[in-house]
Amino acid sequence: MAKMLGARWCPSALRSPLQVISFPACQLHVSRRAKNADQKEFENAVTQLKLLKKDPGNEMKLKLYALYKQANEGPCNIPKPGVLNLINKAKWDAWNALGNLPKETARQNYVDLVTSLSSSSASSSQVKPGADKEQQGSENVVVTSEDGITKIMLNRPTKKNAITTQMYQEIILALKAASKDDSTITVLTGNGDYYCSGNDLSNFNTLPGEIEEKVKSGGILLRDFVACFIDFPKPLIAVVNGPAVGISVTILGLFDAVYASDKATFHTPFTHLGQSPEGCSSYTFPKIMGLAKAKEMLIFGKKLTAGEACAQGLVTEVFPDSTFQTEVWTRLKAYSKIPPNAGRISKQIIRNWEKEKLHAVNAEEVRVLQERWQSEEFLNAVMNFFSKRAKL
Ligand SMILES: CCCCC/C=C/CC(=O)SCCNC(=O)CCNC(=O)[C@H](O)C(C)(C)COP(=O)(O)OP(=O)(O)OC[C@H]1O[C@@H](n2cnc3c(N)ncnc32)[C@H](O)[C@@H]1OP(=O)(O)O
């Protein structure tokens, strides 16, 4: 995808100067939303734009460029480029066409535009031609919804369901859709022999920009991802079909039930990776299993069997692997028959006592992690994994 630096991009990113689409008089939909996007939303939109899967095309890029400049600098304040300077003239025209559009409105329109691009890009990747209307998701995050259950399945078995930056985005979108669909409960599970091997350790190679930018956008992505689990309004159940590592373990403290195969293990190797706890686990794990057991996992990286995780309260119930899927899905189908509003309201009254606290924990964990991601310890650990393919 063409390199885009937020709403600005390097001229070469346009497919070709001659393809610069003449910019129609700007008929921007002035956002009717009562509130204007705040700076954080605007920065999130800039980050979101970099994670778009497909190039939105020159015309859309000109619109985004113009809104970005108007939001930051106000009306066009640079001299008009010469006619032969095609690209800069197209950009000038786009910006100048916004006239005196207030900065706040430009910022809101930018956020709205990126939001619509993100959801259309995700939905275009989700609904395959001829797919069953209930079949959604991308190849790595498969979403299905039937019998009152929306299932989000991590589907990258060759990489032990390691979560890429794109998959974080897709899980966020899947949870947002599930919170509004007609299902009663939502389930997260893995395909293949692993539930999930955590963060894809090559993610920092794929995030755009220099290290500072990678750390910033990685932090925003992680904070938004965990926030989705904090805020998810319906009963959320993990079906842990195999070993679970890292963030796939830490967010379990935010689920409403965790059912595990006796093949599953639970491992949070943060210190071995030069990292620190995330997913609110620095708060939820001590609450769930007591300080000593929580520290054994989060500081010393002790790997738990499913039985140990159940004994410590992280797992609700363990099933023999041979009958796991049958037993668990029979149980979940029964759960999906509860009155949906009562289920949702009961989940929320329990969660609401701590929601503010959990968001504060999430923000602090991300702040600390952003420092860790710039440490020698972290960089060496990741290099070590890929060079020696060291096992944890
Ligand atoms: C946006 C930023 C958000 C940051 C959020 C922070 C989260 C914290 C964490 O999640 S920390 C935990 C990160 N995960 C790991 O450290 C696990 C690393 N993987 C392993 O240790 C092992 O792969 C294993 C123990 C999970 C499985 O070992 P096994 O020998 O059974 O299988 P392989 O190692 O051969 O793996 C098969 C292929 O999958 C690739 N792979 C596995 N896990 C990851 C991963 N986390 N990231 C990237 N790639 C992974 C592995 O490299 C093999 O690929 P290959 O066949 O191409 O070599």
TrEMBL record:
Residues 38-123 form the ACB domain. GO terms for cellular component: mitochondrion; peroxisomal matrix. Able to isomerize both 3-cis and 3-trans double bonds into the 2-trans form in a range of enoyl-CoA species. Has a preference for 3-trans substrates. GO terms for molecular function: delta(3)-delta(2)-enoyl-CoA isomerase activity; fatty-acyl-CoA binding. PROSITE patterns: ACB_2. This is Enoyl-CoA delta isomerase 2. The lineage of its organism: Eukaryota, Metazoa, Chordata, Craniata, Vertebrata. Residues 121-141 are annotated as: Disordered. The keyword Acetylation applies. It catalyses: a (3E)-enoyl-CoA = a 4-saturated (2E)-enoyl-CoA; (3E)-tetradecenoyl-CoA = (2E)-tetradecenoyl-CoA; a (3Z)-enoyl-CoA = a 4-saturated (2E)-enoyl-CoA; (3E)-nonenoyl-CoA = (2E)-nonenoyl-CoA. It is found in: Mitochondrion; Peroxisome matrix. In the C-terminal section; belongs to the enoyl-CoA hydratase/isomerase family. The keyword RNA-binding does not apply. Pathway: Lipid metabolism; fatty acid beta-oxidation. Keywords: Acetylation, Isomerase, Mitochondrion, Peroxisome, Phosphoprotein, Transit peptide. Its EC number is 5.3.3.8. InterPro entries: Acyl-CoA-binding_protein, Acyl-CoA-binding_sf, ClpP/crotonase-like_dom_sf, ECH/Chromodomain_protein, Enoyl-CoA_hydra/iso, Enoyl-CoA_hydra_C, FERM/acyl-CoA-bd_prot_sf. It comes from Rousettus aegyptiacus (Egyptian fruit bat).
